[in-house]
Design brief:
Order of helices and strands: HHHHHHEEEH
Strand order of the largest sheet: 1-2-3
Distance between the termini: 17 Å
Number of strands: 3
Largest sheet: 3 strands, antiparallel
Structural class: mainly alpha
Length: 217
């Protein structure tokens, strides 16, 4: 879904650029993608407002957002070369470079984490389950949401968590700290099967639940 949103955003921006800056052009051939066109597209992106924020300082598209848009354009050109629609010598991205800027991701403080732990939430509510999932990921050195929600009881054995990451297929094997074990105890039942999901956001009766291992998915 996230990938689709990025590509859809790219297509919308490119279509607007062709309409407003390229004499209402509706189609773009691989042969049309020149260094001049890419340079003009880059300049156009730098005139767009950021629709997600209302603050004056962030009113324009962030340079990293522009870099993502252009990187999608670059990948499409590379795919076109692979499929024989154009040739490497006609790829403008050999010359054109769009660098991103390094940003610092703000981290929660220990007191903020403690505030999350102490939140008084109705047991069994979505907020309660979400808090448990977040803290379990936190106690396990950060599990991606896609991997976290697909954890099953077979991934837990003798106080350890072992699973294969969906993004890069690497195996993670770690000892569970007492706080993580305490969260698991909130969901453990006598009737639970080893192939059942630990957290309740996935449905054990759906077709996708039959794909137990990463290779099956």
């Amino acid at each position: 879904v996230r990938n689709w949103k990025k590509h859809n955003g790219f297509l919308n921006k490119l279509a607007d650029f062709l309409d407003k800056k390229m004499k209402h052009k509706k189609e773009l051939l691989f042969s049309d993608v020149t260094l001049e066109l890419v340079t003009k597209f880059d300049a156009y992106l730098r005139t767009l407002r950021n629709s997600r924020t209302k603050t004056e300082s962030d009113k324009m598209l962030h340079p990293n957002t522009i870099a993502v848009v252009l990187s999608i354009f670059k990948r499409i050109l590379r795919k076109g070369i692979e499929l024989g629609y154009t040739t490497p010598d006609k790829n403008p991205f050999i010359v054109f470079k769009c660098a991103s800027i390094k940003t610092e991701k703000e981290k929660l403080t220990a007191s903020e984490i403690q505030s999350i732990i102490e939140l008084d939430l109705p047991v069994g509510s979505n907020d309660w389950h979400s808090r448990n999932c977040f803290l379990f990921s936190f106690y396990c050195a950060g599990i991606r949401a896609g991997d976290l929600l697909q954890l099953r009881w077979l991934n837990v054995e003798e106080g350890r968590l072992m699973y294969q990451m969906g993004k890069n297929h690497k195996i993670r094997n770690m000892k569970l700290v007492p706080q993580a074990l305490a969260i698991l105890d909130l969901y453990r039942t006598d009737s639970a099967k080893s192939t059942d999901y630990i957290f309740p956001f996935m449905n054990n009766r759906k077709v996708y639940a039959d794909a137990v291992m990463q290779s099956d998915r």
